[in-house]
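Posting for a labmate who doesn't have an account.
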Amino acid sequence: FRRLLTRETNAAPWRELARVYRRLEARGEIRGGRFVTGMSGEQFALPDAVERLREVRRLHASGDLIAISAADPLNLTGIITPGERIRTAGRNRIVYRDGVPCAVREGDFTRDLAAMDASVRGAVHRALAQRRAYASVV
């Protein structure tokens, strides 16, 4: 969908992309519709992605923490999640809990992006300090 282009520096205009996507949809190669709640406008996805989105919607919250680099293409904080965008510097890291951004480390400074209790906050800050992508709440 259109908001995903905000991080792209040399992206084609949405009107041109939408025209190509509609053509691919007519051929049955991709699907068009409204898949992600809260996003306006047309959305397009591979047929497999639509099924995976439905699976994710049915999952129960596990509480697992996932830490990624802010330079990772998965850093969609402030683009498809509420809140401000996180600068895409290589040293910056973001921790998500059940898809919600919890905290960010920008250089040597760490700040919370969501309210959390003390035990979760400790696990989140440990996850920010580690290089591993996954952590669990103790």
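Reply:
Got it, the structure tokens are right above this. The longest helix spans residues 14-26.
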